[in-house]
Amino acid sequence: MPLSADRLARALESVDLVLADPAAGRAAAEAVLAESGDDAAAAIALRALGLSWKENGDLARAVRTLRRAITVAEKCGEHYRAAEARMSLVVILSDLGQTEAALAEATLAASVLTGADSARLDVNLGLVLIRIGRTTEALAAFDRGQPVLRAAGDARWETLLLNCRAVLHLYAGRYREASANLLRGERLSRRAGYHLLNAMIQLNLGYLARVTGNLPEALDRLDSAAGLYAEHGKRGTNLHADRADILLAAGLAAEARTTVAQSIAEQEKSGFRFNLAEAHLMHARTALADGDPAAAATAARTARGMFGRQRRAAWADLARHAEVAARFATGERSPGLLREAAGLGDRLAAAKWPVAPHEARLLAGRIAADLNRPEQAQALFEQVARHRHRGVAEIRALAWHAQALHALSTGRPTAAEQALRAGLRVHAEYNAVLGATDLRAHAAARGEELATLGLRLALERGDARAVLRWAETWRAASLRRRPVRPPDDEQLAADLAQLRRVVAELAEMEAPTVRSASRTEISRLNAERLRLEAAVRDRSRYARGAYAPEPPFAPAALAEALGERVLVEFVRLDDDLHAVTVRDGLVRRHRLGSYQAVLRQLDVVRFTMNRMSRRFGSPVMQKAAVEAYDHSRAVLDGLLFEPVRRAMDGGGAGVGVGVGRGGEPAAGWSGAERPLVIVPTGSLHALPWTALPTCAGRPVSVTPSARLWLSAAGAGAGVGGTDGGAGGSGGGNTGTEAASATGRGTVLMAGPGLAHAEPEIAALAARYPEAVVLSGADATAANAARALDGAALAHVATHGRFRSDHPLFSSLDAHDGPLYVYDLERLGSTPQLLVLSACESALSGVRPGDELMGLASAVFALGTRTLIASVTPVDDADTRTLMLALHAALARGRPPAAALAEASAATGIGGFVCFGFGG
Fold first, then answer.
1. DSSP collapsed to 3 states, 775-816
2. Could you tell me the CA-to-CA distances from 670 to 519, 644, 654, 662 in Å, in that order?
3. Which of 219, 308, 321, 668 is packed most tightly, with the most Cβ within 10 A?
4. Residues 208, 217: contact at Cβ < 8 Å?
5. Which part of the chain is the CHAT domain (predicted)?
């Protein structure tokens, strides 16, 4: 059959169509192929079909189809059509990691193609050249092709060129040039309706935002790209690897590692060997950050081998750098490792990688210092340190770290501390852009090494005030700034409401009395729950904060605010546990001993309290639990407080052992102990402090940081004590009512499924007759949020749920489902004094830098000064008795910490802790 103009036109149209809609383009190409044999139209249609398989992620089929297109075109003398097919084959072979074959096809095509087609080939050739590190040639190809494409009005290929050239500039650290190319590409692709090209541009705009420090924008851009890719069925992208890189930059190592595992699985399935090598490199980086250097070394070796086969020497050096870092993390210090690290620094610099050369040289300097080669170490540190005043934050932070190590290696500890503080300021500026709580909390890990080194120097010279300043420099920094609401706040609210409905429906289906729920329906609801949780989590991360420098921490101001109180701040360095005490303006440092030894006793205390509260086991088992509890809490009390007893209470080592478990005065207690302000570290945040003899019977406030306590102390009139009282029989109005969304000062809420909740709230309602009372069907999440917003005092009796996998989904049970931390973050302010009358409602996830995530920590960032809650299980009947006694003490004008101490001593019931200021 002779070639018709219509059939040729439809074949050409299928090529255009496949880039916009791969499925439609494939259908059009197959229709052309079904009509006739081997001719020019068939060659063109086969090219379109090959491109559709490429867009669909089936690279092997794409290569086979394009090679058939070349064969058909050559057979019928259509050498130009064969060259067009070769041009399409270039990138696909490169995606498969066959870079030499890709370059060979480009050479064959270049001898035939002219005009705009030659410029299009330059785009594909330039991409391959970037991948193998021949960037100068790649840039020349792009500069040669762009004027031709612009003159031809070819927006699609100009967008492709702009995207590739932007990638080249990104790798070289030329971010202004990269931005100009990407923004023009974004305009072109959007105006022309090239959605997949726009997704590619969004992906690289996200990477640009990541390397310049704007992680919220980076995540937003990546999610935009993901939506476009999913809409068009695009597979084989490096989207997951890029997301892992952003999460890693925010300190979310475990989440990044899970994400990159998805990338590896996707690339393995699709055959994109080129992207797979980069995914293995990202796996190495995430595993190393996640504390698994053995897995990091294995992944780095895999990536290095793949890069080598792809002729990507510069990338192979990146993989080797990850491998060297993994070996360093396992403790290796050898001349061979030093040579390798130093050589990598030079090669990575020659390849113009922006950050990696500084990382490699800093690592080499540390190895040299450990090998007692001071001159070599100083030279390497100096190479990195000279960049401390310019460049992106990531480089400047590395440079200040190098400057600190250089100062130490030359015997200048004061200069080292100055450099460490400068480096932490860079980290603070970098982290300030993060508005979401989870990003802020995890990002603290990026400054932990500098803060730890500063703390080590202060401990070595025995300067107690310096130890306190360094401990407070990086401790719980995220709680000192209010979380930022994400831009799309209404959508977040809708997703939270839907999530609540799904969780409530799941709970109903999974109840023991329900037998009709199908596994399919439960699986569907669980999948929807996970989808909504991801949507809430991801959207909240788009929120962007701003940097506002904090004033330096002043121990003198703290000492003045403490008054008669005594502060005990626990500090950990490796396994060494220390304490700093502040009493009457005097700051002292104390070495306590092994942190692990403390944790062993803590585990026993928590386990036995759990057994006792649940009345688990026979009377004999209960008695054994009580004996183990009494022994372990006494041992734990000795480990934590005996070394600081004299500094804390001003007496001998045997003074101030507190009140016994049953409320009876313990031996040596004179009732004259001062109130304590305790700043825990690590797992000590989960310690029921009031169970310890030293703390029992005296006012104790447990706070995430001394700086946070000091801020709360200066926050003005609060609830309880001399600040104005929490009410009393008069109804609980405190003068802060106007700030409440309800117009009330006191809120009382009884949640579902808690036996003591309704009677407890009914009894308290008699004490606070003007309080907002929520119970039964009225105790919904929306009503609770509205009432809690701006309240002076809130008492919430409901189950608390701590989510260790994602603490911001920790929740309080409302009638219609969970009231999440994310819900609380949407309030104007949380109650000044908040009482959570439920088991373990004060548990928090602890991140590096003693960053806390959970219900207890969230409310402090949102305005709560004092929280009374439990970190252990507590019996329901005991809880009601203790809560009524607590409010009776508050009504007498006692500050919250003193009120809790008196109520616990009077009832003999423990388990609850006063967190925050305490009055």
1. CHHHCCHHHHHHHHCCCCEEEEECCEECCCCCHHHCEEEECC
2. 62, 18, 12, 17
3. 321
4. no
5. 637-904
Q: Torsion angle, CA of 428/432/436/440, rounded to 10 degrees? A: 0
CA distances from residue 58 to 43, 271, 295 in whole angstroms, order as listed: 19, 7, 30
Q: In this predicted structure, what is the pLDDT of residue 636?
A: 92
CA 767 to chain centre: 43
Q: What angle do CA 278, 160, 17 make, to 5 degrees?
A: 110
For 47, 152, 717, the CA distances from 110, given in Å and listed in that order, are: 17, 19, 78
User: Residue 815's pLDDT is what?
Assistant: 93
Regarding pTM above 0.90, the answer is no
Q: How far apart are CA 422 and CA 427, in angstroms?
A: 9
- Which residues neighbour 494 within 8 Å (Cβ) at sequence distance 6 or greater? none
Rounded Cα gap, residues 454 and 427, in angstroms? 15
Residue in this structure with the two tokens 């540190």, named with its chain if needed: 381
Using DSSP, state whether 873 is helix, strand or coil. Answer: coil
Best CA proximity match to 248, nearest among 483, 534, 445 = 445
Q: Which helix (H) or strand (E) holds 833?
A: strand 833-836
Fold identical between 1-96 and 717-916?
Answer: no
Partners of 793 in beta bridges? 746, 833
Phi first, then psi: what are they for 800, rounded to 5°?
-105, 140
Tokens of 81: 């059509």
Alpha-carbon distance of 361 to 365, in angstroms, equals: 6
104: exposed, middle or buried (Cβ count in 10 Å: 0-12, 13-18, 19+): middle
- Specify the 3-state DSSP secondary structure of 361: helix
CATH of domain 717-916: 3.40.50
Q: Yes or no: say if 874 and 912 are a contact pair by the CB < 8 Å rule.
A: yes
Contact residues for 46 (Cβ-Cβ < 8 A; gap 6+): 29, 33, 65, 66, 68, 69, 72, 85
Domain ranges for the chain, please list them.
1-96, 489-540, 562-698, 717-916
3-class DSSP state of 719: coil
Beta bridge mates, 700: 676
- pLDDT computed for residue 37 by the predictor: 75
Please write down the long-range contacts of 546-555, taking CB distance under 8 Å and 24 or more positions apart: 546/432, 546/433, 547/428, 547/429, 547/432, 547/433, 548/432, 548/481, 549/425, 549/428, 550/428, 550/480, 552/469, 553/468, 553/469, 553/472, 553/473, 553/706, 553/707, 555/465, 555/468, 555/469, 555/582, 555/587
CATH 1.25.40 fits 1-96, yes or no: yes
Give the model's pLDDT for residue 851.
52
What pLDDT, on a 0 to 100 scale, did the predictor assign at position 152? 95
Residues of the chain with pLDDT under 70: 1-3, 20, 235-236, 271, 478-480, 486-488, 511-517, 612-617, 651-672, 716-744, 839-854
Helix axes 59-75, 79-95, angle to 10 degrees: 160
Q: 562 — phi, psi (to 5°)?
A: -65, -35
| Cα–Cα distance, 765 to 746 (Å, whole number) | 10
Residue 665 DSSP class: B
Tokens of 123: 């785009």
Beta strand extents in 603-642 (DSSP E only): none
Q: How many helices (H) and strands (E) does the chain have?
A: 38, 16
- From residue 891, how far is each of 746, 767, 772, 884, 913 by CA, in Å? 13, 9, 17, 11, 19
Closest CA to 831 of 740, 716, 699, 706: 740
- Rounded Cα distance, 387 and 401, in Å: 11
User: Which strands sit side by side in the sheet containing 800-801, from one edge to the other?
Assistant: 800-801, 811-814, 817-820
* Calpha distance 514→267 (Å, rounded): 43
In contact, 55 and 196? CB cutoff 8 Å:
yes
